[in-house]
């Protein structure tokens, strides 16, 4: 059976049944393609770039809660891996009461996204951006951070998830720091978000890989003396905070 996405437009009650009016969403308008270049997939003119996660309550509510759990205002140096145009920084800027005293670094591999982020935050001298490959962080000399955020980035097909996570924690996360990881449990078609990430060879949402990655992170970070919580819906947020004395 063909798999497609639709939006409910209206529900009309009849005498003994309901008439549901819906329209089919063109799933070709999705950035979930493995055949495009980084620039075509995530750049300024891409479908991905038109997505506004902050307009979706199911993302924003749980992301704000994760920042609260990570004690955002106590963090001095903050790193965002896979920053794109900087949506996550926009939320931090609004939430933090001591924003001007904090330093932020956003890293992304897409050059046009980094350029747009630099323009959007041009007046915020405490926010800087770097175009770099996450696989090459060791050569960037970026140091350590007391909060690291990465939303739907470390699961990229060109990264070794377990190795990448361990490298980041060991080399760039302070022992008394915090970490927020966002795992997509959704699919974007245009600017519409649909619950459940469709896996290859399945016509429905199948979450084995999602759970596998989340549980690896939880166990690994707990071994490193972090308290871990898992929240969210369309995006699963793993928040880790140090329990070291």
What does this structure look like?
The chain is α/β, with parallel strands linked by helices and 245 residues long. It has a single domain (30-242), classed as Vaccinia Virus protein VP39 (Rossmann fold), CATH 3.40.50.150. Helix content is 27%, strand content 31%. The chain has six helices and eleven strands. The strands form three sheets. A seven-stranded mixed sheet has the order 5-4-3-6-7-11-10, with helices on both faces. A two-stranded antiparallel ribbon has the order 1-2. The chain has a two-stranded antiparallel sheet with strand order 8-9. Strand 6, helix 5 (161-172) and strand 7 form a beta-alpha-beta unit. Helix 5 (161-172) runs parallel beside helix 6 (208-223). The longest helix is centred in the C-terminal third of the chain and has 16 residues, at 208-223. It starts with a strand and ends with a strand. The relative contact order is 0.15.
């Amino acid at each position: 059976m063909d798999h497609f996405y639709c939006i409910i437009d209206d529900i009309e009650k009849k005498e003994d049944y309901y008439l549901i009016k819906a329209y089919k969403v063109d799933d070709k308008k999705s950035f979930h393609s493995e055949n495009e270049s980084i620039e075509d997939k995530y750049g300024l003119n891409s479908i991905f770039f038109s997505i506004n996660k902050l307009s979706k309550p199911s993302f924003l509510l749980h992301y704000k809660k994760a920042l609260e759990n990570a004690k955002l205002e106590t963090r001095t140096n903050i790193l965002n891996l896979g920053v794109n145009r900087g949506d996550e920084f926009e939320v931090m800027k609004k939430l933090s009461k001591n924003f001007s005293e904090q330093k932020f670094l956003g890293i992304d591999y897409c050059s046009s996204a980094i350029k747009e982020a630099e323009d959007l935050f041009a007046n915020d001298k405490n926010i800087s951006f770097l175009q770099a490959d996450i696989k090459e962080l060791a050569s960037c000399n970026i140091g350590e951070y007391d909060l690291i955020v990465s939303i739907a980035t470390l699961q990229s097909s060109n990264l070794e998830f377990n190795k990448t996570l361990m490298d980041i924690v060991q080399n760039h996360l302070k022992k008394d720091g915090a970490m927020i990881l966002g795992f997509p449990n959704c699919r974007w078609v245009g600017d519409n978000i649909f619950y459940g990430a469709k896996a290859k060879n399945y016509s429905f949402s199948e979450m084995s890989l999602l759970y596998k990655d989340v549980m690896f992170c939880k166990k690994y970070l707990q071994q490193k003396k972090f308290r871990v919580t898992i929240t969210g819906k369309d995006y699963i947020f793993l928040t880790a905070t140090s329990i070291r004395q």
